[in-house]
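Here is a typical sample entry:
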Amino acid sequence: MAVVKAFAYGHGAVAVSKELAVLGADYLAVAFIDEGVEIRKSGNSLPILIFNPNPEEFDAIVKYNLEPTIYNIDFLTHFTAYLTKNGLKNYPIHIKLDTGMHRSGFMKNDIEKLKKTLINTDTVLVKSIFSHLAASEDLSEKQFTLAQLKQFKQQAKSINNVLVNKPLLHVLNSAGIINYPEAQFDMVRLGISLYGSSSLEIVQKELHAVGTLKAIITQIRTIKKGETVSYNRKFKAQKKTIIATIPIGYADGINRHLGNSNGLVLINGSLASIIGTVCMDSLMIDVTEIQAAIGDEVVFFGKNHTAQEVAKSIGTITYEILANVSKRVKRIYIK
């Protein structure tokens, strides 16, 4: 199962999903209905799991043949009622169990009621049973993770016993696939690692960044000692300084915390500091010690200046750096 939620982690869900279909992915997964609709409208016929379906959107779920996650009895009751009203049977659903993440899913004391509901309806077909690990990348939490896996197996078996069909079982995300291979079951959910990033160093060495975020220099100027740059005059030149303006800002997904010399960009093989406050549509960098010219390419993250390095510089995670790249940034796909 390839996870393409959040605009395929900032890379463009439609184009990425199309390529994944060619590469042989069995399933796609998104967070919300609208994400699934967009992919389906593009002509992609792969089954699409919706992690967070909205009860208000049953019509869209059925119209676009999307497969909702069922995470509590109320949702299941309302969905089966909707299917009955519309004369539908064996509609594909996915059962999510809460084994310790405590975000969503059926709790242990809900399982018997879930089983009774499933026994008494033919409107739905359970395609899979799954859960989510809270700390699959952190081996110091191995005992907690093993307890999650044990609970998942027990509950999934209990539900399986009342079903005619045998659904797929899946629990592992990118880090879990590596750290807990014995728990790969019938399917695994590959997310962040699809895009070239892993929290596990041994895996990261084998991955390549899928996307590069870049822009060009549009203006270069020299400022005198004592002059300031950007809003609130956060940068004050300590000497004569050459600065370059780049037409990309926080509206494009550049985290404002990268300003004020916290973040770096790559120009002609050299790193330059982002100085002053990041603006909505632009930012400034210090190129005093770099050979730079108008039109030169500026890389914010990519192969040689990674999203992991950018994330580390401001104390966040790679997921946020990638997913925050806004839709107004033009995507160019190269094969």
User: Anything to note?
Assistant: The longest strand covers residues 124-130.
